[in-house]
């Protein structure tokens, strides 16, 4: 088993060293990362332990197609690691090996979203060297990363009126993760029903398979292929796009509430920031005024006219459409 793991790592490492890059996207910067996967052991039982969804960070420096990736430690399964590798054609790969122990390597591979704001991929760490203290086995995880958003200190910028009408909507920096609706499916993972696209976990429904099945039908019906957020982690707004555009409905059996995007406004009501349409409270942002105003601009940009739900109250999926 150890030999097989090392062969996999060696093949992936050779991809890093031999890659010929035609087009290198800029993925430099700091990233927030969600990790989940398994820690395997070859000398004990149970031989597999779940690494639950956990957060870490990643910092990437880049010169041309060459990258250095500092991937943060997580769940006690792996310490922070510096990888070196290549980026190009919407993919990247990088490798680390322990000086003096060439059989001990870690390999990172991933994909880049078309808008360059999200990464997703896999990391494998085969523990096969004879170094003292190494527990035989391997770590195998999937990850999703989002660029860290620059936080502005209130009062550091003076508001200005856009010269071109609609310029605020055009300059919006959106936080979106792409996926393929064709290969998206419902799976039971460690007792929880999820919608996944390969190793990418899109939605979690806990024990509610009926809502997972309904949400999958919505994704397939509209051809949704990107999931977007305002205010992660714990986003105050989640919306979905179809190739960068708003979904247009309706879908059969849809639970939808209409509103007029031309008359919505941001208001503070009883100390909480809301988006309202007259007396209709559409969204609540608690004390997050900036998130409320960002969501307002997103609704205006896409011309959303309906807020839709799967599983009310406490919906497991919320989406907007025209």
Topology, number of strands: 20
Q: What's the multimeric state?
A: single chain
Report how far the terminal alpha carbons are from each other.
53 Å
Strand order of the largest sheet: 1-2-3-4-5-6-7-8
Assign the structural class, choosing from mainly alpha, mainly beta, alpha/beta, alpha+beta, or little secondary structure: alpha+beta
Measured on Cα atoms, how large is the radius of gyration?
A: 22 Å
Give the DSSP E fraction (strand runs of 2 or more residues).
over 45%
How helix-rich are the residues, as a percent range?
A: 10-25%
Helix and strand element order = HEEEEEEEEHEEEEHEEEEEEHEE
| 3D shape | elongated
Mean pLDDT: 84
Number of helices: 4
Largest sheet: 8 strands, antiparallel, barrel
Low-confidence stretches: 1-22, 160-168
Count of separate structural domains: 2
SSE layout:
Blueprint: H1 2-18, E1 29-41, E2 48-63, E3 66-71, E4 81-88, E5 91-98, E6 101-112, E7 118-127, E8 137-147, H2 167-170, E9 175-178, E10 184-189, E11 192-197, E12 200-204, H3 209-222, E13 226-230, E14 237-241, E15 255-258, E16 265-269, E17 272-277, E18 280-284, H4 289-302, E19 306-310, E20 317-321
Antiparallel strand pairs: 1-2, 1-8, 2-3, 3-4, 4-5, 5-6, 6-7, 7-8, 9-13, 10-11, 11-12, 13-14, 15-19, 16-17, 17-18, 19-20
Structural features, described:
The protein is α+β, with helices and mostly antiparallel strands and about 325 residues long. It folds into 2 domains: about 1-145, Beta Barrel (Lipocalin); about 165-320, no CATH class. About 15% of the residues lie in helices and about 45% in strands. It contains 4 helices and 20 strands. It has helices spanning about 1-20, 165-170, 210-220, 290-300, and strands at about 30-40, 50-65, 65-70, 80-90, 90-100, 100-110, 120-125, 135-145, 175-180, 185-190, 190-195, 200-205, 225-230, 235-240, 255-260, 265-270, 270-275, 280-285, 305-310, 315-320. Strands 1-2-3-4-5-6-7-8 form an 8-stranded antiparallel β-barrel. β13 (about 225-230) and β14 form a beta hairpin. It is elongated, with a radius of gyration of 22 Å. The termini are far apart. Mean pLDDT is about 85; it is low at about 1-20 and about 160-170.
